[in-house]
Design goal:
The protein is an alpha+beta fold. 49% of the residues lie in helices and 24% in strands. It is elongated. It starts with 5 loop residues before the first helix and ends in an 11-residue tail after the last helix.
């Protein structure tokens, strides 16, 4: 008998059982469905609405499930991808723009598997479908915002240097500064030239003024920064959505592509990606009378904004100068007021914001402070072209409203909270937008394309066919060349696939893509390669005169170091690919890494256990081996 340890048998059985259990949900494919959500975050779908949708769909001859509530949305299952697309069109026709109808996939995994945390593998955009967004960055607005900032900085410089000026105005590519005399203009020229090298400075032809024109390099730097900063912020927002292997990359000079594979709530993704939201904290000017507020004409240094919770429609008078702004927020978490259980957002400021908040609130204890919510959205306007065609042109618009007014009870520092939010969903989205980082320029979605699961099914079928063909050739080869030991290798190979799928299903965030399937096919060949090394060593040992059991021991011992050396180098390559790659490259690297480890396990432990079970536990030693 061989001396193969028994614990390795139990290890093999335990790994196969566990991975097989968690691989089982992949036998239950998700069902096509449509998801109906309210257009505004936190709003629920009315209870009577699903019945109207089901009646319309069934009246059109579509077989549907009974419908089920998922959070604040409503999910309706269909029996095919074609029915899903038709149901989406019918539901949108019925509901109009007050609700969002999105393609979705509903899980069919049995409840007993869900209870132990088993779920199918996450599939990438190329296999499962998902949502593709093409986002336009308004680089002209980025330049305008930067010019406004430079305008304020130059005014501060003029005051610090004691230089009198009449006005500072901005135009498309720069600034114009008017002075009262030649001396002031010359002093300003020297001061500005030393600190603002982005501008080309020339004297005006008439009067005492300076023209500050941005150089082409400065304009390109502003545009590149706006696009790159927006890409980073969008990537942070996408990560908050919990999407596996999203794609967020720049396209051209001023566009960003966002792909969300298998997104479960396309309406929420659209809201979060398309919104530019920030906050400003300002003091409330209590000296402005209600009569003056009703006129709608604010005094100097004051602005009027609508108050979200005011049913009388009375605006709030806020001082124009902000205490801190959203770009000084370093942390934002949704929570609940311990006294009223109302949703709130807990804010953390950076050092400069905290210092300013502390200084101003210390001087204004007992006075009210307002939180101004500023959101930039996009709407589409139909325009008739010269050829008579109608084009939807995106237009950005900004909404401002006061969401909270509270009396400053004590000096505030880097941490405080804001209330006055309607729902936990609204508080969660606001915290997400603040936490993900501000956008350097307004954005709007110019293209939204849903990649249906039908294309993904074709890719899955193509990948499955390639895997089956490759495995079939390997199985036939192993049996033809190594006979009984070839069958053992084939059994281990099937177990290897079960373990790979089980591990991929267990890893949170792991996503299978079409390149990932290629990685699995590659590991099939590598798994057989390890078996070939072992079996050839066993053959050589038999030829050298060892008995069958000695040849088995010697074959596995001699091949071990070769298998380890060959696979460790490939593991390093997979790690580097995963670390340096993005998107589909990471998918390939992940499956390759897992496949190498599992193929080593099944080749060294799996086949050895089966061989020992067949030959090593006999009362009489075998006289020959089927190899």
């Amino acid at each position: 008998m061989t001396r193969y340890p028994r614990w390795k048998f139990f290890l093999l059985i335990g790994v196969l059982t566990l991975c097989g259990l968690y691989a089982m949900p992949n036998l239950y494919p998700d069902a096509p469905a449509i998801q109906i959500s309210a257009a505004e975050a936190g709003d629920e779908v009315p209870a009577a609405l699903p019945a109207q949708v089901l009646e319309k769909l069934q009246g059109a001859g579509l077989a549907t499930g009974p419908g089920e509530r998922v959070g604040t949305s409503w999910l309706v299952r269909l029996d095919s991808n074609e029915a899903q697309l038709r149901a989406k069109a019918l539901a949108e026709e019925l509901l109009g723009r007050d609700f969002v109808v999105a393609l979705n996939l509903a899980p069919t995994t049995p409840d007993w598997l869900r209870e132990i945390g088993a779920s199918p593998m996450n599939l990438g955009l190329d296999l499962r479908g998902g949502v593709h967004f093409l986002i336009q960055v308004d680089t002209a607005a980025a330049i305008e915002q930067r010019l406004k900032s430079w305008e304020s900085e130059i005014k501060v410089l003029m005051r610090d240097e004691g230089i009198r000026y009449k006005s500072v105005t901005d135009n498309e590519r720069g600034l114009q500064i008017e002075f009262g005399n030649e001396i002031a203009r010359e002093d300003a020229f020297t001061a500005i030239r030393n600190q603002f090298r982005e501008f080309t400075i020339t004297a005006m032809d008439e009067g005492f003024g300076l023209n500050l024109v941005l150089s082409d390099t400065a304009i390109k730097d502003i545009q590149d920064y706006a696009v790159d900063q927006n890409r980073t912020s969008l990537a942070n927002r996408v990560n908050e959505l919990g999407v596996g292997e999203p794609v967020v990359q720049r396209q051209g000079a001023d566009r960003i592509v966002v792909e969300l594979p298998g997104i479960q709530d396309a309406s929420r993704a659209r809201r979060i990606l398309g919104r530019t939201a920030t906050l400003e904290f300002r003091l409330v000017d209590k000296d402005v009378s209600p009569a003056r507020i009703r006129t709608g004409v604010p005094p100097a240094g004051v602005e009027f904004f609508p108050f979200k919770d005011d049913t009388n429609g009375m605006p709030v008078a806020l001082k124009r100068q902000a205490i801190v702004t959203g770009d000084q927020v370093t942390g934002a978490q949704m929570g609940f007021d311990p006294d009223t259980n109302a949703p709130e957002v807990n804010i953390t400021l950076d050092a400069s914001g905290a210092k300013r908040m502390q200084r101003i609130t210390a001087k204004n204890v007992g006075k009210p402070m307002g939180v101004l919510f500023i959101e930039t959205r996009t709407r589409f306007k139909s325009e008739i072209q010269e050829d008579g065609s109608v084009v939807e042109v995106p237009q950005s618009f900004t909404e401002r409203e006061v969401i909270n007014v509270a009396t400053i009870q004590t000096t505030l520092g880097s941490r405080f909270r804001i209330t006055g939010l309607d729902s936990p969903a609204e508080a969660s989205e606001l915290a997400l937008l603040l936490r993900a980082g501000g956008l350097a320029a307004p954005i709007y979605i110019v293209e939204e394309r849903t990649i249906g699961p039908s294309l993904g099914a074709e890719n899955i079928q193509a990948g499955f066919n390639s895997m089956v063909l490759g495995m079939a050739l390997v199985l036939v080869f192993m049996v033809a060349v190594y006979k009984g030991f070839g069958l053992i290798a084939n059994v281990a190979l099937m177990g290897n696939l079960v373990i790979i799928i089980g591990i991929m299903s267990l890893i949170p965030g792991a996503t299978l893509t079409l390149p990932g399937i290629a990685g699995i096919v590659l590991t099939v060949g590598m798994a057989v390669d390890a078996n070939v090394l072992i079996f050839e060593q066993i053959r050589q040992s038999l030829k050298s005169g060892l008995n069958p059991l000695q040849a088995i021991e010697a074959g596995y011992d001699r091949a071990f170091s070769t298998i380890m050396d060959a696979n460790i180098t490939t593991i390093f390559a997979a790690i580097i690919l995963f670390w340096a790659g993005t998107g589909s490259v990471k998918g390939f690297a992940l499956t390759l890494f897992i496949g190498i480890l599992t193929s080593m396990f099944t080749a060294i432990v799996g086949t050895r256990s089966i061989v020992d079970f067949i030959y090593g536990r006999r009362a009489r030693a075998p006289s020959k081996l089927s190899i």
